[in-house]
Specification:
globular, single chain, alpha+beta
Length: 132
């Protein structure tokens, strides 16, 4: 089993994440703030950090999800996305570990299905940490 991706400077509320989310404009900004709020609400042990220009969430130090904003869409990414059950077929990507959900204004994925996927990602990392 491959090691977890860890970020040892993650904190409860990262000012840099707040500033980054606040600087995203229009509908993409609204979506980024909404979905990162869902990520933050996964559990009391969720920490956050800006990593590679993306608002990133961790369980303790182990990264589990990120939000990245691009010109016409945003990605909600999962560091162990290849391990996630995805019954609604939301995940994209073919990498060894990571997967993402592409969110476009006006063509948003099912809210309940994506929320479930985010919580599942959190649970996978929690379980992996317990196994260590």
């Amino acid at each position: 089993m491959s090691p977890l991706f860890t970020l040892n400077n993650a904190v409860e509320q990262d000012q840099a994440v707040e500033e980054w989310l606040g600087s995203r404009e229009g509908r993409l900004g609204e979506l980024a703030r909404h979905w990162f709020a869902v990520v933050r609400q996964c559990g009391p042990d969720v920490l956050e950090i800006m990593h590679d220009g993306m608002a990133t969430a961790c369980v303790g130090e182990a990264a589990f999800a990120y939000v990245a904003v691009y010109t016409a869409h945003l990605n909600i990414g999962f560091f162990r996305g290849a391990e996630l059950d995805d019954p609604h077929k939301l995940l994209e990507g073919t990498g060894k570990m990571m997967r993402h959900v592409k969110v476009r204004p006006g063509a948003e994925p099912d809210e309940e299905a994506l929320t479930e996927l985010i919580h599942h990602s959190y649970a996978v990392i929690q379980r992996r940490l317990e196994e260590l």
